[in-house]
Specification:
heterotrimer, A alpha+beta (508), B alpha+beta (193), C alpha+beta (254), B: 193 residues, alpha+beta, 7-stranded mixed β-sheet, globular, C: 254 residues, 6 helices, 25% helix
């Protein structure tokens, strides 16, 4: 008999979990202790939580307007929670001098933030203001049931409807209106977030804020003044006019910036209502210590930019160490600077130079030839022009050019690489025939060669990038350095060798 | 001697007259002046059902999908009531299709399902009244090109005065227990004969 | 004589704004490809010729009606026929007042009240298909529905905040049939408003639940771009017969 009873309860539980029957009489699921919970966790293996019957008197949920978040619940048992949300259609500023008729949940874009605990039974009252033009409903992504509640909350203007659901999954979920045409209702600002806390609550932080990105489509151009109408074609083509945090440019800037003190841990509940665009969410100057990506159960650590899908959310915790203004952006960066997707987190408090010093040095920067003796090259060039080039000038100029060109293989001290690149220092090969070096630099050298008693058989490529005077200066420097016999190579000699080689090549 | 008998008689009839002519509550669906024909060809008004709580349902006889199960659901409620409770409840099946559902067709359905016609009434409304009756009961329906109907399945519980007490869209054959409770509570109230 | 008086009172009783006298205009009927996917007719409907009021019914018109039929005054009407906010903009049960100007369309009327008004005229509310047929037209064409500019105009009405006072009837240019204000002023009741069997969750397109409406799933939308229709369907399908709203009026057909 008992087995039959358990089977029956499990069947009821399965039916209840499988979704409400034909979208009609929705009732709160009354659990039989030891059946629904065990049936749930053993059947799915995925859903962990506290699903006992609601305890205590019904609680009226505290809803907040963005960017504020209701306080953490600090409850240890599931309860019956009554949520009352009103749809209000109203004209609000979307940018400086630009207004738009938004359709809102609770009078704001995004709509009010709802905070409940996993296992709660939520009795949801949706009201549609009497002067609304349109019927509306609500789909909460945290609801398990047809349409996420949309099937049971279709409300004409001046009416209210009610349905109940059990919050089975913890997480941060989007809610939005789902009345046809859905895209238009969402594009007009009908979205918000519902946080379903895990039974143990979330780790404690100092500040919690609510930010939601949305894309907006107006007939007029970006910042074109006046009341702007919704442009359905732009929405279909996904050509947003505005991409905004919390429904308007300047919603979270200036004195409306969100605030924290140095040393605070900050948590952002970030949603993306869409309707179309995915967000690459980033806070300039901060790294997210933890990101509960997609608003789910697991977190990633040390994240710079996180993807928030349209109709999705993410939660992130980070500690602010250094004072300043931290800009929240969609890192599809033209949206931030040309469509309005930016918000400010203002952090105040003492400086911490060990973490960030601010600007320390400001010097002249010369570019890619920024080596100490580049001046020597200029001097030599001018002297050569004047016909008064000295050996010293050539050596100095040659030294400047040697570095980075020849030193790569032959080393800055001319030592070369044993068995690979022949040395230039105290080179018997150079001493035997100094002027032969001109041809080596001009045309390269391959094949066996013996330098200082060692055999080498590498390939040196021709230094085609060097001009005649550069070659002359480099070789003069080489001959004067590291115990080499000294001597001088002039530009004329190099030019002559180059011409001779060209004639030989032409003759063949 | 006559006066002694006459006075109480006058009082009783006066009270009776008052009772039946007491104005209909403003939220009673019997406010609709609708003339109906039942399965035996008798003419009646909607308001003639006043005085007995009713389970009202809209259907049509050639319906193949949910109408049979709607009737099953009502029969299920009937079965779950005590005989005393059953006697206090009337059942009103109103046709969506008066063009085809005449007394003869209605009677055929009643016979086929062995419906207790002392309590169950099947009616054919005027075709101009169907949309209004549906509007009062909250039934939505569409007439198809072939004369069939698409409609919502609803059981409506009316009190003795014709006010809607409860509605149930559970019409799969087995009544919604909460709706059944409402039926019992309504039947237990004084004033329902 | 009676006929003439009736005709006269019909015209006088439904007088519109300056220059626009409400009359019944004849519509030729024909084939309509509906924006709704009717499984039984494939979405192609035959509309018989009919006549439609050129203007929505005004406060003045409705006042005349409640004077002749006092059971429809807001202090007399049964609650089952009209909710508690019936005619709430009027200053009194038979008195208009500053919030309900004579030439504004009457709103806060229920389907039952609107039906009674039309029946008193020997007419009826237009069916949904008749409304859809008449509303497909713009000033020059009988079917403007595929024109994006026409759709944008309709959407622009939805962008207007609903807190503005309603305009008087007849101020917009008439459509090609001579009918005014089918768009851009108020939602309108249809005789078979409760035939719009759509899922309350409008995203359930092609939902295969055939038991939901006894042999059919919810009506689907044939033409997703036709927002005018989509929104009207959504609106009417959310209402019951006794309901009324601030932006819902009506006109009659016969």
């Amino acid at each position: 008999m008992r087995r039959i009873l358990i089977l029956f309860c499990a069947a009821v539980a399965a039916l209840a979990l499988g979704g409400w029957n034909s979208g009609d009489t929705l009732v709160a699921v009354n659990d039989k202790p030891g059946t629904l919970a065990s049936a749930a966790s053993s059947a799915s293996g995925l859903r962990k939580g506290d699903f006992g019957p609601p305890q205590g008197p019904p609680i009226r949920a505290v809803l907040t307007s963005p960017p504020q978040v209701p306080a953490a619940l600090n409850r240890s048992a599931p309860a019956k929670v009554i949520v009352e949300l009103e749809v209000i259609e109203k004209e609000l500023p979307i940018s400086e001098g630009v207004t738009y008729t938004f359709w809102t949940f609770g009078g704001t874009v995004p709509g009010s933030f709802i905070r409940v605990r996993q296992g709660d039974t939520v009795e949801f009252h949706l009201k549609n203001a009497p002067d609304s033009k349109m019927p509306h409903n609500i789909d909460l992504h945290g609801v398990t049931g047809p349409g996420g509640g949309a099937a049971s909350s279709f409300t004409a203007p001046g009416h209210q409807s009610q349905f109940s659901f059990k919050a089975l999954n913890a997480g941060l979920f989007v809610y939005h209106c789902a009345t046809a045409p859905v895209g238009m209702h969402v594009a007009n600002g009908m979205y918000g977030l519902i946080l379903i806390e895990p039974p143990g609550g979330l780790p404690k932080v100092d500040k919690e804020y609510y930010v939601m990105q949305g894309d907006f489509y107006t007939v007029g151009k970006y910042r074109e003044k006046g009341l702007q109408a919704f442009d359905m074609q732009k929405a279909i083509d996904e050509k947003a006019t505005y991409v905004l945090f919390n429904g308007s440019e300047g919603a979270l800037t200036g004195d409306k910036a969100i605030k924290a003190k140095t040393g605070d841990t900050v948590r952002l509940f970030v949603g993306n209502g869409g309707p179309n665009l995915v967000s690459s969410f980033h806070v300039i100057g901060e790294i997210f210590d933890k990101v509960w990506f997609e608003g789910g159960t697991h977190f990633q650590e040390n994240v710079q930019t996180t993807l928030i899908p349209a109709g999705g959310a993410a939660m992130m915790d980070f500690q602010v160490e250094v004072p300043g203004s931290y800009v929240l952006v969609d890192h599809s960066i033209f949206r931030a600077f040309n469509k309005g997707a930016l918000a400010i987190l203002k952090v105040e408090g003492p400086e911490n130079l060990a973490i960030y010093s601010g600007k320390e040095v400001d010097e002249v920067y010369i570019g890619d030839r920024a080596l100490p003796n580049v001046a020597a090259v200029t001097t030599a060039a001018e002297a050569a022009k004047a016909g008064a080039l000295t050996v010293e000038e050539q050596v100095k100029a040659g030294q400047a050019r040697f570095a980075g060109t020849c030193s790569t293989c032959h080393q800055a001290n001319g030592a070369g690489l044993p068995g690979v690149f022949p040395p230039l220092a105290r080179s018997d090969w150079l001493a035997a025939n100094p002027k032969a070096a001109v041809d080596v630099v001009l045309h390269g050298l391959s094949g066996p060669v013996k330098v200082n008693g060692q055999d080498y058989n590498s390939v040196m490529p021709p230094m085609n990038q060097l001009t005649d005077d550069e070659i002359a200066n480099i070789l003069t420097y080489v001959l004067s350095s590291w115990g080499n016999p000294g001597g001088r190579v002039t530009k004329a000699e190099v030019t002559e060798r180059r011409k001779a080689a060209a004639a030989v090549a032409a003759a063949h | 001697m006559h006066r002694l008998i006459a006075l109480p008689l006058i009082l009783v009839t006066a009270i009776a007259a008052l009772a039946t002519s007491a104005p209909l509550p403003r939220d009673s669906i019997y406010q609709l002046d609708a003339s109906l024909t039942d399965q035996s060809g008798r003419r009646l008004t909607l308001a003639s059902k006043r005085g007995t709580p009713q389970l009202a349902v809209m259907f049509y006889t050639s319906c193949k999908f949910i109408c049979p199960t709607i009737i099953d659901t009502v029969l299920d409620i009937d079965r779950k009531l005590t005989p005393a409770e059953r006697q206090r409840l009337g059942v009103l099946l109103i046709s969506l299709d008066p063009l085809h559902d005449d007394p003869r067709t209605l009677k055929a359905v009643a016979d086929k399902r062995s419906l207790d016609l002392t309590r169950w009434t099947l009616v054919q409304p005027k075709s101009t009244d169907v949309r209004s009756i549906a509007g009062l009961l909250g039934v939505r329906y569409r007439v198809l090109a072939d004369g069939e109907f698409n409609h919502t399945g609803v059981l409506v519980l009316l009190d003795a005065e014709g006010r809607i007490i409860s509605r149930s869209t559970t019409t799969g054959g087995s009544a919604d227990p909460q709706f059944l409770d409402r039926v019992r509570t309504t039947l237990a109230e004084p004033g329902s004969k | 004589m009676r006929c003439f008086v009736a005709l006269l009172s019909l015209t006088l009783g439904t007088a519109g704004a300056q220059g626009a006298e409400a009359v019944y205009v004849a519509l030729p009927g024909g084939e309509l490809v509906s924006a709704l996917k009717y499984e039984d007719s494939g979405g192609r409907l035959r509309i018989a010729p009919f006549a439609l009021m050129s203007l929505p019914v005004t406060n003045a018109d409705f006042l005349a009606f409640v004077r002749r039929h006092p059971q429809w005054r807001r202090d007399a009407v049964a609650g089952v026929f009209a909710e508690s906010r019936y005619l709430q903009l009027w200053a009194g049960p038979a008195q208009l007042g500053p919030k309900a100007l004579a030439q504004q369309p009457v709103v806060w009327v229920s389907w039952f009240a609107a039906s009674a008004y039309c029946q008193a005229q020997g007419a009826h509310l237009p069916t949904w298909s008749q409304w859809e047929y008449a509303a497909a037209a713009d000033e020059l064409r009988t079917d403007a529905r595929s024109d994006p500019a026409w759709r944008e105009r309709i959407l622009a009405w939805y962008a207007q905040p609903s807190t503005h006072a309603l305009a008087a009837v007849g101020l917009q240019p008439p459509n090609v049939y001579g009918v005014y204000d089918l768009h851009g002023l108020v939602w309108e009741w249809a005789e078979d408003f409760s035939a719009l069997l759509v899922s309350a969750d409008n995203r359930d397109q092609g939902d295969p639940d055939r038991l939901k409406f006894c042999g059919a799933g919810a009506l689907s939308i044939n033409d997703r771009d036709n927002y005018a229709v989509l929104m009207r369907v959504a609106m009417l399908s959310s209402l019951e017969g006794a309901d009324a709203t601030a932006n819902l009026g009506f006109r009659c057909a016969h």
